[in-house]
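Changelog excerpt

This revision adds worked examples to the README so contributors can see how folded entries look when concatenated. The first example is reproduced verbatim below.
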Amino acid sequence: MSCISEYAKVDNGTFKLMKRHLPGPFTFILPGTTRLPKIFSGRREVGIRMPACPMLHELLAQLKVPLMIASLPLGEDEEEEYLTEPELIHEKWGEQVDLVIDGGTGGTEGSTVVDCTQGGAEVVRQGLGWLEE
């Protein structure tokens, strides 16, 4: 939570809301800062996600840096397993990414996306998490 302000503008109310729900199945959309890496240049917003995944938390604790990622695209004719099965993810994307970590089969239901860019908290996609304000 402490490094969020480096990449996103977050007011006190939003910070408290995030602190109550993270780690968990939420993505909070916040106004981005100018300190986002160049790959994200031109973006006005950034999604902050902190899953409740012990393996990921240990990896990030060892690295001592935040992890910036993009979601995997799923083509029209592709099966969902290409987003959830580590072997299939490696088969499809292994040549294009630096690392694929096998943390077991993933789920298919997304996080709840909460837009906090307009001074409030608006659920724009209901997923696994339920927002309690």
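The second example, added in the same revision:
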Amino acid sequence: MQNHTTAHYTTSIEVAKSPGAVFNHILYDVAKFWPEDVEGESSKLNDEFIFKSGGDSHYSKNKVIELLPNKKVTWLVTESIRKTDNFDWTGTKMIFELTPKGDHTMIEFTYDGVVLEGEYDRLVQICDMVIKEMLHDFITNAG
């Protein structure tokens, strides 16, 4: 049996786009900034979508459970498995919160859920890569 712990990690970036533009990118362009393959829709409340990598060695089914236009999007992991070690992070929430800052938008991303003991630093690295690099670069370069 693996030892799990709860993790609550928040990271943020500021981009030179309006909250509306950022909100639309988070809803409609997940496959363009998320590091895993994306199947399904994530643009309206109760949409379900899947992240997969390494074939099916890393899998999560997610559901949009909160949608506040131009302000907040929350995804809930409803089913998951990492086959290399059978890690399951079902029940984890991934939360995007948007705050206007002049003609820019602050994006705060929070991972609120389960992590294996000893993997918190890895979680931080992954969240920072996805938000501070991939999402930041995609939004900054999007038309």
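Reviewer comment on example two: The first strand starts at residue 4 and ends at 15. Helices lie at 19-28, 30-33, 120-141.
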